[in-house]
Structure prediction request, 182 residues.
Amino acid sequence: MLLSCDAAARAIEAGRIIAYPTEAIYGLGCNPDNQTALQGVVDLKARASNKGLILVASQWSQLEPFVQPTDQSVLDTAMSSWPGPVTWIMPASDRCTALLTGSRDTIAVRISDHPVVRQLCDLCGYAIVSTSANMSGEQPLEDATAIQNAFGEKIAGVVEGELGGLQSATSIFDARTGAQLR
Prediction:
């Protein structure tokens, strides 16, 4: 089922999982504070729970509760790449659960420039989970029909919109060291 951003935001708020277009691929998303939904994403993908998940947002204030206060120069470096297709690994706050962090002391975060992602986060009023719409270890699914066929009633639906045109998954950097991880 195709969803408008409004319907998708309501589904997220109700604890459901959605699929949505991002900069390069379709993502699966949910409320990062809903443990049942987080576990649902991990189970849906048959993903190891120690891998952690990415949070996407439309503005820093949506990510800030999930990130420990950090050196201003680190934050300035991340902010210089946002909004955009760059994910940063930052120290996680106590609010982050093991399903979000993969039992590490860090959390992956991104302020997206994709209009659908931004609208979803604005409608929800918080960051949402972002992980590739696929079974763990398989190629990401490339269109709404394939996603709906693969996940069916296990997701609320697929948000209408186009992929952002990036040819590969977003870059990932470690905010503490500056090292590029992907």
Summary: The chain has one domain: 2-174.
